[in-house]
Design a protein that fits this description.
Strand content: 15-25%
Number of strands: 14
Bound molecules: pyridoxal-5'-phosphate
Strand order of the largest sheet: 4-10-9-8-7-5-6
CATH superfamily of the largest domain: Type I PLP-dependent aspartate aminotransferase-like (Major domain)
Shape: globular
CATH class of the largest domain: Alpha Beta
Structural class: alpha/beta
Distance between the termini: 37 Å
CATH architecture of the largest domain: 3-Layer(aba) Sandwich
Amino acid sequence: MSHLFYQTSSFRPFLERGEGVYMYGQDGKRYLDGSSGAMVSNIGHSNPAVLAAMRAQMEKSTFGYRLHFQTEASETLAARTAALCPPGLDRVFFVSGGSEATESTIKLARQYKIAIGQGSRWKVISRMPSYHGSTLGALAITGYDPLTGPFRPMMREMPKIPAPRAYLDGMNPDDPATGLHYADMLEAKILEEGPETVLAFIVEPIGGASTGALVPPAGYMQRIREICTAYDILLIHDEVMTGGGRTGKFWGADHWGTAPDIIAISKGFGGGYVPLGAMIARSDMVDAVMADGGFQHGHTYAGNPLACAAGLAVLDEIDRHGLIDNAARMGALLKSRLTGLMNRYPFIGDVRGQGLLLAFELVADRATMEPLPPAMKAFQRLVDIAYDMGLIIYSRRTRGGTSGDHFLVCPPMIVTEDQI
Ligand code: PLP
């Protein structure tokens, strides 16, 4: 018996080692990591250059508390990260994961508004469904009932608007009217709540696990930026999954050229080598908070030199091997192959995504997008069949948590045509 209580629905082998896009179990089997773990191992497993950089850093120091020492690794990674951001976003706050990153964004947003005399603003609008993390603050802005339900009495739940799932609503995602239709729901919610009470809107530029690689409809990202600006509401991009190149551009929002006020990144930032994340914010926001007594927030392991050295090496490897371009090319190929499967299998209702953040959805009827009945257990069977055949895919039930089965197909950005 295992003393762990992580949730897995069926037997999984012990992991022996990982190399490139493959993972090897102690059962002697080789698995293609078709989801990069949880969309984390973007540059593949056991990259020698990253291991060498970690080893070199470990021989110097593994930990330097950020209030006691500056470190070259954290300074350099902060500068590199800021240089990748839209102009004006150049202050970096390191954390050790995605939930810490998103929670940091809403706390900084709140302190900034207090600092500039707008203390009446505290509501963070987000989308349903969405996933921003599992700690109580991040959960309050998460739109996913099975996860939030038990904890509702323990947190202050925040307003939600529907995610722009045009494919479920029978709307054309390429029609700018569709983007406006969903973006206008943000404006309506702001007016309903009272603009003077609204602090921020948080959005995954391309949806992750909760919506299954949902690409927003034409015009949506531009319009939400305009609405936030018009009502003096901070726009937060949760790029925890999309940041780092997986979608074929470094930031998911680069596909639309829109700039937020704060960004959260994690997952591919540490690439599965170390827990690493960051929040990047506008200088004037950080300066206002610092002048008002400082940011009342922080985590012990934040910005430790080992994590930052690994993060730097991950960025170097992405550049050296042109992995963002590879993600765009291999993603287009994989998407066309997945779309081709729709001709053979009527129960694939939708294929969507961008770059190597792709998903397909199982349905009972493509015309109505009716989900498969849960009793069929098709969802778990497909995961298990893939596993038996040596392929790992990431599964999530979305619609109400009981049906609506989508699968993320997100191999590492080093994947080759043969492996696709
Ligand atoms: N935000 C997004 C968009 C995510 O996909 C995730 C994790 O899946 C998180 C936040 C939370 O990250 P973590 O699991 O590292 O706390």
